[in-house]
Amino acid sequence: MDELARACEAKAFHIGMDEVFILADPNCPRCKGKNPAQLFADEVKTLRAHLKKIGSRTWMWGDRFLEGKATGLGKWEASENGTASAIDLVPKDIVICDWHYDRSSETPLLFAKKGFDIVVCPWRKSDVALAQLAEVRAIRGGDDPAAARHALGMLQTTWCGLPPFAKAYRAQESGGATEKDAAAESANCFAALFKAIREKPQ
Ligand SMILES: [Zn+2]
């Protein structure tokens, strides 16, 4: 982390922490029987304290802070392994990247109301991205001014690496991105999203 932060002169550092499934495992001699939310929060706090010391703000994925069963979001984009209550155990200066790739959800407002800055993250589906943008704009224009300030914006994910994404983006700019791979789909999603961002909201 130090090497990367130094090399990039990073003022922000994304620590990941998504899809953590094996925690407080009964076969783990170190953490069996412990509270998964506490274990997860402790790790987040350790990383965040270190990043603060070297001048970087912590960003991370939000899925482990969401209740998978209660929200119906499932065990990937939310947690079914007892980590959700960690949301109340970590510092509020972390930026939460609230990723949902198949549908928009009301979770950005939940994070914003808790006091976290948030960005909402689509991947391949333009209609989902546009619904998420509407969600961000609704929070910003909503009746909770504290929450409104926390809605930072959108973060497009690609999951294909930068060169394939850049290539696909250039192809769609010239009207040629017809392939059905992750690069083309995320480039199309990004283009649709940023077209909408640049248009005046209704
Ligand atoms: Zn363990």
How would you characterize the overall build of this protein?
This protein has 202 residues and is α/β, with parallel strands linked by helices. The chain has one domain (2-158). It has helices spanning 2-8, 36-53, 68-71, 107-114, 126-140, 145-150, 162-173, 182-198, and strands at residues 12-14, 57-61, 95-99, 117-121, 151-154. A five-stranded parallel sheet has the order 1-2-3-4-5. Helix 3 (68-71) links the parallel strand 2 (57-61) and strand 3 (95-99). Residues 25, 28, 30-31 line the site of zinc ion.
Mean pLDDT, nearest integer?
95
Estimate the strand proportion. Answer: 5-15%
Spatial strand sequence of the major β-sheet: 1-2-3-4-5
Cα radius of gyration in angstroms: 18 Å
Distance between the termini: 42 Å
Unreliable spans are none
Shape: globular
In short:
The protein has 202 residues and is an alpha/beta fold. The protein has eight helices and five strands; from the N terminus they run H-E-H-E-H-E-H-E-H-H-E-H-H. The protein is 43% helix and 11% strand.
